[in-house]
Design goal:
It contains four helices and four strands, in the order ααββαββα. By secondary structure, it is an alpha+beta fold.
């Protein structure tokens, strides 16, 4: 099949666009790999002090997640440890806790620590040499931050 000069010119332009797209794709992948090597992800068992405190409280048993008032969701532990939903979700996403979804949220869904969560607790204790809640860092006032007072509701 004979092609005209116009057809050849269009094919060359098309190949040039493909080359540019491939080059941009490779450059983007290279940048992503460089960023990943500079910021390696945490190992699966590494947990922050806040996550450790939450996981430790949840491992004691008896913790639930339930709704209060206008649909706000809270995590309740027998020792009244304050666990934010964000902290709980980070533990859940990593497979360290299990939420019993067979129970309606308004009744209180049970929370248990998985075997993976138990390993994370043990590894954190071994790494820090800690068997209790981590000591608090500098006070908010010493760090130049505003002080926030949290009032906890205690049910009897």
């Amino acid at each position: 099949m004979l092609t005209t000069a116009v057809d050849l010119h269009e094919q060359i332009n098309h190949l040039g666009l493909c080359e540019t797209a491939c080059h941009d794709l490779v450059a983007g992948i290279t940048r992503a790999l460089e960023r990943a090597s500079l910021n390696p992800p945490q190992t699966p068992h590494e947990i922050s002090p806040t996550q450790y405190e939450a996981l430790r409280a949840l491992a004691e048993g008896g913790a639930t997640m339930q709704t209060r008032g206008r649909g706000s969701t809270i995590v309740l532990t027998p020792d009244h440890t304050l666990i934010t939903i964000a902290t709980f979700q980070s533990l859940d996403k990593r497979g360290l806790v299990h939420l019993d979804t067979s129970v309606p949220l308004y009744q209180g869904r049970g929370i248990t620590v998985t075997a993976e969560g138990q390993r994370a607790l043990a590894q954190h204790r071994a790494r820090t040499g800690s068997t209790t809640v981590p000591a608090a860092g500098p006070t908010a006032a010493a760090a130049g931050m505003p002080t926030v007072v949290v009032k906890r509701e205690v049910r009897r």
